Amino acid sequence: MTDNTMAAGTAPLSATPASLAAARTAPISGAAVNSTTFAIILSLSFCHLLNDMMQSLVPALYPILKDSYALSFSQIGLITLAFQFTASMLQPLVGMYTDKRPKPYSLVAGMGFTLAGLLILSQATSYPVILGSAALIGMGSSVFHPEASRVARMAAGGRYGLAQSLFQIGGSMGQACGPLLAAFIVVPHGQTSLAWFSAAAMVAMIILFQVGHWYRARRAMTQPGSQTKGKGKGSIAAPHGLSKGRVAFAVVILIVLLFSKNVYQASLGSYYTFYLIDKFGLSIQSAQLFLFAFLVSVVIGTLLGGIVGDRVGRVPVIWFSILGAMPFALLLPHANLFWTGVLATTVAVIIASAFAAILVYAQELLPGRVGLVAGIFYGFSFGLGGLGAAALGKLADLTSISTVYQTTPYLLCLGLLTALLPRLPGEPKNAH
Question: pTM for the complete prediction?
C-alpha cells in the first residue's frame, strides 16, 4: 500500500501488517509528507477499535458484576472512576514526555497494559481486584492515545479534523461493540470469557509494531528539515499570534466544554442500561442492544463532526454539538421506550460531533504540543467521564436513575461558553 490523498478516493477499508510495511518502505517525497496516509490512519483507527472494544467490556459488564458481587451504584461508579482516572492522570504526563522524546513503539507497550488488565479482570474474584484491573486498563489508554493521536496528525496531510475523526471513530466503534459482545458472549459464558478477547490485543500489538516502524522512519526523514534538536523552536511557532494568557484561557474553556459533554455522555454510557431496565422492564440483553444503537450513533456523530469541522471551522461545530443536543436531552426522561431510543441516538450524533473539533482547535492553539493536547483532552475525556459517572452513581443511589436523566441535560448550558473562544486563522467570521 502506498500513500494516497483524500482526493484520490482509493483508500482501502482496512490495513494489514503487509500494507503497513509497504507504506513504511515507500519513498517519502515532499508530496507524500503533505498527503494523507490512509494505511497508517486506518490502522490506528482499527487498533483504537480493538483497544476501546476491550475497555468497553468493563461498563458493558456492569450488570453482571452488580448481580454477582452485590455492588451498589456507587461501587459501579468507582469502577468507572478507577480505569478512567488512571488514564486522566497519566495521559497529559505521557503526552508531555513524548512531545520531547517521541517513542515510536510505546503504542505496543500501551496495548500490553490493556491486555494485562483484561486478563486479570477475567479472573478477578473480589472487588479490590476488579478495581485494580480496571486501573490497569486505564493505564493502557494513557500510553496509547497521546502517541496514536500524534501519528494520526502526522499522517493527516492537512485534513486534521478528518484524520482525528477517523481515528476517533475506531474507538467509538470499539465502544459500540462492547455491549454486543457482552450480550452474546460474556453474559452467556460468564466473566472468565473476557480472556478470549486477549487475541484482539495481540493482533493490535502486531499492527502497532508496524506503525512504529513507519513512525520512526517518517520522523527520521522529516525532522532534519523541519525541526531542530533540543528545544525544537521551529515546530512550536504559533501562527495565531495569541498571548500565552489568551491561549491558556481558551484551553480552560475547551476543558469546561468537554466536561459538560462528557459528563452527560457518561450518564448514558454507564447507566443507560439500568435506566431502560428500571423504567421499561427490559432484559439485560435487550438493554444492551439499545446501548449498542447509542454507541453506533456516537461513531456517526464523530465522523460527521470531523468532516464538517474541516469545511466550516471548529467553532460552529462546537456551538451546534453542545447546545444543539440540549432540547433532545430534556425530552428524553419523558419519552416512551421507542422515543427514548430515538432521542438517545439523536443526542449521541449531535454531542459526539464536538470531540474532533475541540481536539483540533486545541492543537492549533498549541502547535508542536500534539502529545500534550491529546493527553489533556483524551485524558480529561476519560477522567471527567469517570468523575461524572461516580457522582451520578451516588445521585442514583440517593434518588433514582430517572433523576439523573432529569438533571444532567442542564450541564449542556455550559456550551454558551463557546462564545468566549478566540477566532483562529482560517475560522469563518460567522463562527461566533
Answer: 0.65
